[in-house]
Write a structure and sequence with these properties.
The protein is mainly alpha-helical. It has a domain of 97 residues. Helices cover 45% and strands 8% of the residues. The chain is built from three helices and three strands. The protein has a three-stranded antiparallel beta sheet with strand order 1-2-3. Helix 1 packs antiparallel against helix 3. The longest helix has 51 residues. It starts with 11 loop residues before the first helix and ends in an 8-residue tail after the last helix. About 10% of the residues have low confidence.
Length: 144
């Protein structure tokens, strides 16, 4: 005598377990996506600040010191453009403070204070190093 094996479909318990697993995974994945998006925004801001710092250092080298402005760095005053002025990944503005200081600043020197600032998010204007310190551990605390 041969036994025929019947094909069985999904049981209600199996469907409930699958839905419960999927339902519990969605909030975790949404949180991780939001965290990664905030980290990407922070990385963009820090790299834009570093680019402005490098352009300011190059401008100082080419012009034997002095105080660069946005128009002298991006070439809108007719001079050679040292950088294309970035826009923030969040609402805000990049700027250069009034005084650069006496030392030449480059993005390669992490112990040197950055010149450019970004006034965006909810923490106000900060330099590259300040953005890394304040927003690096929890970018969402800076409104990113």
């Amino acid at each position: 005598m041969k036994c025929k094996k019947r094909a069985r479909g999904l049981t209600i318990i199996g469907v409930m377990v699958g839905v419960a697993f999927t339902g519990s995974a969605i909030p975790t994945s949404v949180h991780l996506f939001a965290q990664r998006r905030a980290e990407d925004r922070l990385d963009t801001i820090v790299s834009n600040l570093a680019g402005i710092d490098v352009a300011a250092a190059q401008w100082n080298k080419d012009n034997h010191g002095g105080q660069p402005s946005r128009s002298t760095l991006d070439g809108t005053d007719g001079a050679i453009a040292h950088t294309k002025w970035p826009v923030g990944p969040v609402v805000g503005a990049y700027s250069i403070p009034d005084r650069l200081g006496s030392t030449e600043v480059t993005a390669a020197h992490h112990d040197t204070a950055a010149c450019a600032t970004f006034d965006g998010g909810n923490k106000g204007p900060m330099t590259r190093l300040e953005w890394q310190k304040v927003c690096g551990a929890d970018p969402s605390s800076c409104g990113l």
